[in-house]
Amino acid sequence: MRSNGRRPVGALMAALALVGGLLTAAASPAAARPEAAPARSTAQADAYTWKNVRVDGGGFVPGIVFNRKERNLAYARTDIGGAYRWDQSGKRWVPLLDSLDWDHWGWTGVVSLASDSVDPDKVYVAAGTYTNSWDPGNGAILRSSNRGATWQSTTLPFKLGGNMPGRGMGERLAVDPNRNSVLYLGAPSGNGLWRSTDSGVTWSKVTSFPNPGTYVQDASDTSGYLSDNQGVVWVTFDERTGSSGSATKTIYVGVADKDNTVYRSTDAGATWSRVAGQPTGYLSHKGVLDAKNGYLYLTTSDKGGPYDGEKGQVWRYTTATGEWKNISPMADADTYFGYSGLTVDRQKPGTLMVTGYSSWWPDTQIFRSTDSGATWTRAWDFTSYPNRSFRYTQDVSAVPWLTFGTNPTPPEVTPKLGWMTEALEIDPFDSNRMMYGTGATVYGTENLGNWDTGGKIAITPMVRGLEETAVNDLASPPTGAPLLSALGDIGGFRHTDLDAVPARMYTSPTFTTTTSLDYAETNPNTVVRVGNNDSAPRIAFSTDNGANWFQGSEPSGVTGGGTVAAAADGGGFVWAPEGTPAVYHTTGFGNSWSASSGIPAGAAVESDRKNPKKFYGFKAGTFYVSTDGGATFTARASAGLPADGPVRFKALPGAEGDIWLAGGSTGGAYGLWHSTDSGATFTKLSGVQQADTIGFGKAAPGASYQTLYTSARIGGVRGVFRSTDAGASWTRINDDAHQWGWTGASITGDPRVYGRVYMATNGRGILRGDIS
């Protein structure tokens, strides 16, 4: 399973949309200027409670950091979903960056995290999602003196890449363990090494550091994503060379340079030199110091990760003598992966563990040594091929979808240990507890000592509270399951219980990413979904409200899911897939498809929620209508509608031709429009400066019109809004502590529960809001 298809695929689309104009500069007078009639209310009338619809995990966790001074204080970083703190009492993760607003969506990508071992209340985050144009903002150092409850920020003069290649290396950000006002940051893109001497408030470049890195994954990539210099990738202090209050003298720094991957300072960062005798030909993903025994360990790979890597080695450097020793668990000839995850048991420093992060088949590999790397044992070994023996048991009953709905043949098993296993940490206070991150979850064990005594360690998900899915579409049918979701990387789920992890993701077929889904309004048992896959099928149907699925045929040339719409009665469908020269329609369940006329390829499509013959489309400022089941479309309204930027529109259930359209771009048409004549004309809501989503829910008590929900800027305020009077007035229902960065993909109310809303995020999962 390739995790993080949104990384860059789905998040790239979101990022491209954002770059295309969804972001507004907070200081821009034009962005703040109200239109003809400002919204009548942006204050909260009802207090809302927000929590995740449970999936548990669903994305890449490239870093886990334990505090070295305080027991049970641990953090996890994600590539697009923010940072988390471990809550030992609840055995769950607590999100820390939900306060990030729309204009700072890029800071939800965390490239590194540092917990202060002198003052455990302090924690630092290096934030920024992309180093290329997809993220219009620079990176930042976020600092907290209350364990992430609140934050202050310093914007850097360059970008950071929490979702860039090489994001599993690190940690790039480190606090001096002797003088905790001193921090170092390894920067990407040729920006070198940076230092703060005032607890992260101000930063300056370490001009004496000689090497900003040279390695790029693919120099020919014109987008700047694969061609970025991965830079300075980790910082490690030798705490023995300092004393409390005095800066640590010896510092090791890893650089993405296959010929010069480790540098050292012995004068508290004043001067630097390449460490003599070091290995060449590989990139050091991690550098961890065992101060008790005087060893610096490196895990290396021929590539930057997290997906690639075909060869690697593990090295040990004796700091007292300068001796380098190759202590790789496997011979070079037998290695088909790179090494990355690296941890030392602080209670038993001769014990260390490493991961083969890019061992995709038959599974990832974890290695353990109790003699400083002289000998190794493995999490699994081949016996007589294809059979394997295991030093672990694995129970995913808490997150059962981690089987990915597969039933592989040996040597593969389900569930897997994981993939992209670049984060690996033994609890510094408990030799029996170990956690590691994968492309989909956090796994852990609390009986790690069994590994060495002939027993088996018990591996279970340790991911509750960490919600990292990127959400593309949401639907809340009037009957059946309350919520259906379309997600990046893990397809999506049918939630029959919003507070329980679903038993399985969508299967038969399984998509890597679901891009769009719909149900028949008057027959909600009929559901359709489309998505991305290496090959067909990319469309699936259900006749039992999404509980079970069967695949449909597809037109030739399909390369991606695009958007799909179901007729109100479920008797037909319209599909606008990626890669084809047309939009298509079908009756029945897609045994054959016919090209629709009058509508351009790639248009977004939706259905009328009352008239089963009526479908709608939109592209590049023009709205299209079909009255014959999608066979032919006619261009209707275009005047005043947004010609640029992403647009999302929906038809109101139970009322033919009642359409709401949201979207646009700064500098052009941008806002919320309403039509009551099937798109012949649209009226722009003057009080809504910007809007990006629109959804409907149960009408308020005494109201005659369904409740509207939107992620928008109204009255100069960015937020999540509700209207109970058909858009005449709006109430903000989130607050500054609950903003979640970018929320522009999808929103829907619940048709059965007044006030309940479901909202998509790009990396913080599905949010559910209820009136408190």
From TrEMBL:
<feature type="signal peptide">
    <location>
        <begin position="1"/>
        <end position="32"/>
    </location>
</feature>
<keyword id="KW-0624">Polysaccharide degradation</keyword>
<keyword id="KW-0326">Glycosidase</keyword>
<dbReference type="GO" id="GO:0016798">
    <property type="term" value="F:hydrolase activity, acting on glycosyl bonds"/>
</dbReference>
<keyword id="KW-0732">Signal</keyword>
<keyword id="KW-0378">Hydrolase</keyword>
<protein>
    <submittedName>
        <fullName>Glycosyl hydrolase BNR repeat-containingprotein</fullName>
    </submittedName>
</protein>
<comment type="similarity">
    <text>Belongs to the glycosyl hydrolase 74 family.</text>
</comment>
<dbReference type="GO" id="GO:0030245">
    <property type="term" value="P:cellulose catabolic process"/>
</dbReference>
<dbReference type="InterPro" id="IPR015943">
    <property type="entry name" value="WD40/YVTN_repeat-like_dom_sf"/>
</dbReference>
<dbReference type="GO" id="GO:0010411">
    <property type="term" value="P:xyloglucan metabolic process"/>
</dbReference>
<keyword id="KW-0119">Carbohydrate metabolism</keyword>
<keyword id="KW-0136">Cellulose degradation</keyword>
<dbReference type="InterPro" id="IPR052025">
    <property type="entry name" value="Xyloglucanase_GH74"/>
</dbReference>
